[in-house]
Structure prediction request, 187 residues.
Amino acid sequence: MEEVTPAPDSLTVITMMPGSAKPVAAKPAGSVEKIALEITPGRTRSLGYLEGPKRTLDLTKAEVIVAAGRGLGDPEKIGLVRELAATFDRAAVGASRPVVDAGWLPLEHQVGMTGQTVAPKLYLACGISGALQHTMGMSRSSLIVAINTDPRAPIFSIAHLGVIADLHRFLPILTETIKKKKHGPTS
Prediction:
């Protein structure tokens, strides 16, 4: 959170990404001073409006997000993340920007500054290094678990729990353990 003091005789505009902060108790309404502004046209012009693709996945509603990072190695490994997410109720698959840029998952899965800002109860970062662009979109999660082979990965500085392991071996074991706890041993 940031405390901002506007410079005297200046206009200050503050914006926030949706979901970037948890709601706080309402305070009494302050006073509003309307100021008439005369804005001179800039040297830019609009060429039109192009609407982006409709988002079918709203990660902000998920209680658990299992996010895929470049550390998965290739798109065929996304199944490991999907299987783990399927063990939870109200879960979704998220992704870091490199995963989306590589075409492994569509943009609607991206978490971060240029994706969705989320604050689930549990965020499992699988093979995500923890670049600032990504962590700004998920750092408000209640419990962050990072799984990465690099003990110096920046994701560990914000994670509540860190697992230094090969996720290709660890995720199947974690998935099977959760299934057993939830449903009993499988045949």
